[in-house]
Specification:
The chain is of the alpha+beta class. It has a single domain, classed as Alpha-Beta Plaits, CATH 3.30.70. The protein contains 3 helices and 4 strands; from the N terminus they run βαβββαα. Strand 2 and strand 3 form a beta hairpin. The model has no long low-confidence stretch (mean pLDDT about 100). The structure holds FE3-S4 cluster (F3S). The site of FE3-S4 cluster has 15 residues, from helix 1.
Length: about 100
């Protein structure tokens, strides 16, 4: 499965959502998550994210492993998102701070 890591928080660009063919994304006030039971591993979302927040599970660094469980749990709690929405206020500032 694919996993949304920390860089999404405070940005929430949702370009990833626009590329997803199976509606595996879920959203809250700060970021998105991927439902591992729905993701088909197509990889379309990875290059779409301006802050490189999405990582294939097997490519996660040691200190990113906890994002697997966080995504799985959050996907059960937050509503599905199927269409792009406006980025969060300050998203571009955070993107620059992240070096992208
Ligand atoms: Fe987040 Fe990147 Fe998608 S910032 S909403 S993972 S395009």
């Amino acid at each position: 499965t694919h996993v949304v890591t920390d860089n999404c928080r405070g940005c929430r660009y949702t370009d990833c959502v626009a590329q997803c063919p199976v509606a595996c994304f879920h959203v809250n006030e700060a970021r998105v998550y991927i439902n591992p039971g729905v993701c088909i591993d197509c990889g379309a979302c990875i290059p779409a994210c301006p802050v490189h927040a999405i990582v294939e599970e097997f490519d996660l660094a040691e200190d990113q492993q906890h994002w697997i469980g966080i995504n799985a749990e959050a996907a059960t709690r937050y509503p599905s998102i199927r269409a792009r929405m406006a980025p969060l206020e300050g998203a571009d500032d955070r993107r620059r701070a992240l070096g992208y």
